[in-house]
Amino acid sequence: MVTSVAKGRTAHSEPDYIARAEALATSFAARAAEHDRTGSFPFENFRELSEAGLLSLTVPAAHGGGGAGARYAARVIGILGKADPSTALVLSMHYINHLVMARSPTWPARLSRKLARESVEGLALVNALRVEPELGSPARGGLPATIARRTETGWRLTGHKIYSTGSPILKWYLVWARTDEAEPRVGQFLVPAGLPGTRIVETWDHHGLRASGSHDVVFDDVVIPLDAEVDVRKPADWRAPDLTQATVHTVFVAAIYDGVARAARDWLIAFLKQRVPASLGAPLATLARAQEVLGAIEARLAVNARLIETFARDFDDGIQLSAGESNAIKLTVTNNAVAVVEDALSLTGNHGLSRTNPLERHYRDVLCGRVHTPQDDSTRIGLGRAALGL
Asked: In 3-state terms, what secondary structure has residue 126?
């Protein structure tokens, strides 16, 4: 039971947050097609999430938040991923960072309390900005080109970040950068959005998740306080993965794309029941082939549900989890989700690929599951090397 009360709200149990997410999902789903078509950012979704207290779901109860762990957060993300995966992606990144703040000994307590309080009190989202044009994904190795130069009065930050999910609405950026010291250190700097020298370049025009606002953010000699340094270390000290971040990232990403697959499944069921070809004289749902394909879809979704639920619960229960295992969960669930939508398309033909039907959008969205870190090839190589003892 959540006992903390914020802004005059009465205390609520974690299942109540699930009900709030389900209530919002209807309006999110109704708006999703238009946001996808225009590439516009769903600002209204985040206002409603804030008003429903869902932005602070993973903020510790001691700071007035929901105090939820990975299990309930993944359920909320899955519900919203089914309605609008772009919104769910931005929200999941926000949730991840608050879970990491609450559990990481390297996060300055003053900063984590500040961000927690702001998330409870209003519309204050945070995300990590890590990917760069030259570097690509930091998970592949290499030093960032973004540089933080220390002066007597503060850090001066210069760099270019791409795929900055949620950039139109973020209040805080966690910027991955290196110092200009003789022996550079690498890590995160907390940067308020909108400082002089900061520009959002609207480059996001993607195949899927078109409403995620994953634009470029450019920093040109942006001044931030010296205590904006969150966790900056020697590059070698970053070789071991942050298991909290790695675990919740993979399970939340999995939940998003499982949600997309479930939206496709629901549309397919309605289509099979309603479509009556003249040559058949009965709904497509009466065909054994349609029933078999739908049965295969149900099997994949059942596996996904079990993997997401049990893995998130193990994390909340403090069971030691490996990065390899969490990567395998992400690979399995996202590929199951892609296969679900592809199976749905195999039964619908041109109807499924028409932009007048949502299945076409679900297909574009679900394919994005494969590009999130860790990518499938890295996961398979890592698991193979571990099996070989290399």
From this structure: strand
**CA 109/CA 224 separation, integer angstroms:** 18
Q: Give residue limits of the domains in the chain.
A: 14-123, 129-235, 243-388
Give which of 339, 345, 343, 382 is closest to 360, Cα–Cα. Answer: 345
Q: Extract the tokens encoding 237.
A: 């000290």
What CATH number should be reported for the domain whose range is 14-123?
A: 1.10.540.10
Classify domain 129-235 by CATH architecture. Answer: Beta Barrel (2.40)
d(CA 21, CA 42): 16
Is the separation of the CB atoms in 222 and 158 below 8 Å? yes
pTM for the model: 0.93
Tokens of 364: 């574009």
Q: How far apart are CA 165 and CA 148, in angstroms?
A: 22
- 1 — pLDDT class (breaks 50, 70, 90): very low
Q: Which residues pair with 187 in a beta bridge?
A: 177, 232
> What is the three-class DSSP state of 210?
coil
- pLDDT tier for residue 237 given thresholds of 50, 70 and 90: confident
The CATH topology of domain 243-388 is: Butyryl-CoA Dehydrogenase, subunit A; domain 3 (1.20.140)
- Tell me the residue type at 261: A
**How far is Cα 218 from Cα 222, in angstroms, rounded to an integer?**
10
Q: Are 97 and 91 in contact (CB under 8 A)?
A: no
Tokens encoding 276: 């009556």
Mean pLDDT, rounded, for 308-326: 92
* Helix intervals (H) in the chain: 14-38, 43-51, 70-83, 85-103, 109-121, 243-274, 288-316, 323-348, 350-353, 358-367, 376-388
Instruction: Say how far apart CA 336 and CA 324 lie, in whole Å.
Output: 18
